[in-house]
Amino acid sequence: MELALSICLGIGLSAACGFRVFVPLLGLSIAAQAGHLSLAPGFEWIGTWPALTCFLVATILEVAAYYIPWLDNLLDSIATPAAVVAGTMITAAVVTDMSPLMKWSLALIAGGGTAGVIQTASVGLRGTSSVTTGGLANWALASSELAASTATTLLSVWLPALTALAVLILVAAVLGLVWRRSHGRGIAKPA
Hints:
Helix content: over 70%
Number of strands: 0
Order of helices and strands: HHHHHHH
Number of helices: 7
Number of domains: 1
Strand content: under 5%
Low-confidence stretches: none
Shape: globular
Structural class: mainly alpha
């Protein structure tokens, strides 16, 4: 049961990485410092004061940067691969009692994949907002992403199974929307 909950925690925190890279890392560091959860061997450093301080500073800088017009779009080019790496790392950090091969495979597929799907959807929304409003509505999107990352982080720590279920539904909805758009608009298919 503990393994299943740690996998759910990893998936939920990875989704939060898709909204904001450093918010879930900060949340994980705080939860580890408070003794609320255990970190896998080799990841204990996440629960230290220096790591918490670094994650706090990085979170503040990341959040502030997304409120600067056009810098938010530039950050998306950096945040997309960073979200995948963070999602992979955060899942590996919370999954314990699993062979290294299985843990890293799970971390990359479930953690990195979840973060990548959420981040890609976020990039698409920001791009649409930038084109349709000239970037004027991007602050609302930045606020929504921050709220989603914070809420997902907190819920992942408190209710990991329920959060993982919600994340899986969200990922399925995003992938379904992408599939419908790619097949419904007459995109040329190879002959």
